[in-house]
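Handout, section B. The chain below has 401 residues.
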Amino acid sequence: MDPRHSEAAAAELQKLREQGLLREEWPIVGPQGPEIRVEGRAGAVLNFCANNYLGLSGHPELVAAAHRTLYTWGYGMSSVRFICGTQRLHWDLERKVAEFLGMEDAILYAACFDANAGVFEPLLGAEDAILTDRLNHASIIDGVRLCKATRFVYEHADMADLEKKLVEAASSRFRLIVTDGVFSMDGDVAPLDQICALADRHRALVMVDDSHATGFMGRTGRGTPEHCGVTGRVDILTTTFGKALGGAMGGAIAARKETVDLLRQRSRPYLFSNSLAPVVAGATLRALELLAQTTELRDRLESNTRVFRERMTAAGFEIRPGVHPIVPIMFSRFTPDDAPLAQRFARALLEAGIYVKGFFFPVVPRGLSRIRVQVSAAHTPAHIDHAVEAFTKVGRSLGVL
């Protein structure tokens, strides 16, 4: 073993520590929810940074479903799907996901990261082209790198640049436009109506990662295709069960049956990773059943998001405009060295009873550090009042307001 590598790692960590850029983990004691306890801290704090958009992570219906599944189907599969890792439960969930998303079929993965890592290489080759938004999620970037198709990166949500790249790729056999449905750092929604129009004009395919939209975007929570009015015009949807649909883990790809069947034969994360744990599959099935019965949770989330955005704007904070429950609180207009400010702001908010985190490079571009707030349907009006008051107090103390 060469000790120089450990020494270099230690030096790099010390540099980050001195710059105030060391990411910290604050362990939660107990279940996820709008009110949580942090190890080493007395009293509860309000969680405003979870992907728990619909408040389902600790929902009693999902907890009960998880218990039932555990006793009926067992704990783990100890196998990949094609050997002895498929239960009827997995088929049931795939059918329910496809039905909910309005697609012909679906295939399960351990995470949406795995879904995005395993979708491109089996479907596209060297004679094809992928056109990807510059701000797409890291899992899409990594998945594209594993594929031999020619990569074209278009500027974020820039339809003129996308069309230019489509023309450049005109000689390709297949052209696939891939975008996040909602971009996780800014909460902005991809212009899917314009993307689908360009795809129709240039005979291209469209793929959307809808991880930050499935279950609550759109009138009935079917995601950004419904929100943007392009239901039925997206060829491939990837999504996660680790956010609005209970928050545990797991992901899926939904597409035409032939596409899914080919992925079952060739997608490496599907072929070489353990099956999704039965308890996660059973609880996710229950989550989808709940969302198919009523839009109450997504309606409450929409209202909470609107109120929080309006009140934070009125308080004087710079926030990225939009309608999504991701609400970035920006600091770049106050100081060019905004990353340490974001860290100090998050620690001060924790002392004020609000659990959030600072985001800085390389998660976001340099000079665009922020606190990324995420609103939940589980937040009450009192929770939102407390959050806005705490943000305002800390903002004044740190010279942000």
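Note. Residues 60-293 form a domain with the Aspartate Aminotransferase; domain 2 fold (CATH 3.40.640.10). Compare this with the example in section A.
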